Amino acid sequence: MKIYFAPLEGITNHLFRNAYNEIYGHIDKYFAPFISPSEKCPITPRERKDVTPENNKGINLVPQLLTCRSDHFIEGAKELQAMGYNEINLNLGCPSGTVCAKGKGAGFLPETLALQKFLDDIYSYAESDSMKISIKTRLGYFNPDEFYDLVDIFNAFPISELIVHPRIKSDFYKGEPRKEYYAYALEHSKCPLVYNGNIFSVKDHDGFSSTFGVSLDPVMLGRGLISDPSLADKLKGFATETDFAKFRRLHDTLYHEYQKIMSPDINVLYKMRELWGYWQTLFDGKDRDIKRLLKAKKYAEYEDVVYRGLLEE
Q: How far apart are CA 69 and CA 35, in angstroms?
């Protein structure tokens, strides 16, 4: 079974990827948070640092580009190809209001004529430079029925993989995925498919697989894999429950790595709070400790809750 780690902006940077890969592993592809190329700068120094191979050793990383301009995409792709990458992912799924207002991410989906021209340009480039381009998409912007036309559009191009998150822009990440549309993709898409959305447990994966009548493989995990870092182990049969020794190693590694590059205390704790927003699901009955942790402003306060309570050995 192949498992892909979805990109989460602000979370799955190279520090997180390296820590996770060393402690857990069992991920077939990691997708980097999106790079948004511009006229003046295809890749910023910060973005370059995150995807440079030197910072991602031993990791099968796929950079992701977010743009609605084919010339910007191609310039960004050339920079990434020069770094050694032969696969790039196009983000057509980001539901952020600021992103969509610029016609990017999910905001590009209703512009079908412009999208076709864009895809024609980037796949012509890909063919000439032996570059694989995968796409991560939502069903549509205004209405899930937009997906029917999108499938026809995607079928006209040599998409290496089509990663489908079966929601529309306004759904964000709420409610149940619109399963009937992924079922449509399974029947009508000519592209290799990857499912993404609402898999937080083995039971969820098996339930979706039963609904679709096929085992979901490959599958992309994002929020579910952050919430329970052992989920890939469980899906691949290496574990049956959450490994809290590994979890503590992951926590400690990230905590100390962020301390090396950030200050004062509160900035590091903001990063850790973001992670605990997902991790708290592993600690039923510990609501009081979680609330104290999320209010901590100094390392001493934070460590008192974490090491004398939640992760006490």
A: 13
Range of the domain at 111: 3-235
Do 303 and 164 have their domain in common? Answer: no
Tell me, yes or no, whether 131 and 28 share the same domain.
yes
Quick one: pLDDT at residue 86? 96
Same domain for 82 and 187, yes or no, is yes
CA distance 276 to 241: 19
Can you list the positions of beta strands (E) in 113-177?
A: 132-140, 162-168
Residue given tokens 């940077």 in the structure block: 13
CA distances from 167 to 146, 197, 238 (A): 11, 8, 31
Residues 6+ apart with CB under 8 A from 304: none
**Residue showing tokens 């990663």:** 163
Domain end marker among 183, 212, 235:
235
The DSSP code for 230 is T
Which band of pLDDT confidence, cut at 50, 70 and 90, is reported for residue 313? low
Banded pLDDT at 236 (limits 50, 70, 90): very high
Contact 198, 6 (CB under 8 A): no
Yes or no: say if 44 and 76 are a contact pair by the CB < 8 Å rule.
no
Q: What confidence tier does 129 reach under pLDDT thresholds 50, 70, 90?
A: confident
What pLDDT score does 35 carry? 97
Q: Which residues contact 214 (CB under 8 A, 6 or more apart)?
A: 186
| Count of domains observed in the chain | 2
* Tokens matching residue 90: 């196009």
Domain termination residue (choose one: 193, 212, 235): 235
* Angle, helices 265-279/287-295, rounded to nearest 10 degrees: 150
Cα–Cα dist 163/259, whole Å: 35
